[in-house]
Amino acid sequence: MNFNLKSGKMLIILMLMVVARNVYAAHPNEPIKSTLQTGDVVANVEIRDSKDAPVMLPGFGEQYLLLFYSDPEVPKRNSYFIEQMKTERFNDRENFLSYGIVNLKDARFYPNNLVRMGIRREERKYEDQQVKIYTDPSHIVKSAWNLGEVDNEFAVIFLDKSGEVLFYQAEELSNREADNLIRLIYKTLGEDMLE
What residue stretch is flagged as signal peptide (predicted)? Predict the structure, then answer.
């Protein structure tokens, strides 16, 4: 049998086709999931508080939720949006809650106990603004909600009371995107935005 480069490429292509067919045959009705999209509905999940105690997502199913899912290695991302949100004081409303969830699984340079200590310090520092920060030690939220690649990101997720995603972006928001999201929050809450 004469084996040359052309027949070797064909053999590899045939092997890949067989593997792909077998993978599909094993799970034919399972759709290929894309990352979280506006309009998707997510379920409540168990995360951890700043003292590592388990807790279900606070306010889920009861309030509109604005969640910040962040890698502790990039704490300054979305700083414009965060500063704008502080001035809006949405957390003063009964039907709205906002908090952070720190992605501990991707924190390669910081031990979890050190990150939690920093979280408790931030909660005390901004207690008057009702700042709460939780943790996701093992990609619970990322996996359950299919957030996609969130390592080194500061994702923003806005949910309605039924768990429907009204906004999701893993990458840093531009100032314009941040302003548009604030408008969306006002609109969703049925309020006029003060300019």
Answer: 1-25
